[in-house]
Amino acid sequence: YAQDLQISIRGFGTRSTFGVRGVRILIDGIPATMPDGQGQASTASLASAQRIEVLRGPMAQLYGNAAGGVLQVFTKDPPTAPFGAVSAGAGTYGQWQIGAAAGGGTDTLGAVLDVSHYSTGGYRDHSDAAPGYAVLNVRAGYEFPVGPAKIFVFGRIDNLLDKTYAGSLIVNDSNRRFFEPAAGRRLFVGLRSMF
Hints:
Layout: E1 20-21, E2 23-27, E3 30-31, E4 38-39, E5 49-56, E6 69-75, E7 83-90, E8 96-105, E9 109-119, E10 133-146, E11 149-158, E12 166-169, E13 179-181, E14 186-194
Parallel strand pairs: 2-6
Antiparallel strand pairs: 1-4, 2-3, 5-6, 7-8, 8-9, 9-10, 10-11, 11-14, 12-13
């Protein structure tokens, strides 16, 4: 696990030593892939995902130089009724995960908050060099009518507490830094129009 999750589409990404290569990752239409084509699957929170779309083949070129394809994650819209959810899981080699989500709002204003913690000891010797981590994400939105259309303005902050956690493994590093930290706090804003 210290090498982060890997994604393979049409063979692209299978030989990547860490992270995701050749597959563009978008979250709510905003690129989560670096300009050099490297991305990390851990930037997308599955706890707050409403749907995931995969484009492969020539149509993926609409989104840039992602030869393998595009993985697009859409987060849940804030609900009008308050909700809450918790999750937990455990596995071999000291693996465990806990999570919680809450949200609510009105017809025009709402927010979704999710937090999760993941930890594993790993099955290889010294694979616990990358510590477990907890990440807090928040999304809020406001919807207002403009004539016959509806405009939805939203903002999302990933890694709200700016927590440092393992993004990918560094091999043969002489300064004993065994992992590359994942991205820090990220702010995204967007606009969606419905006719």
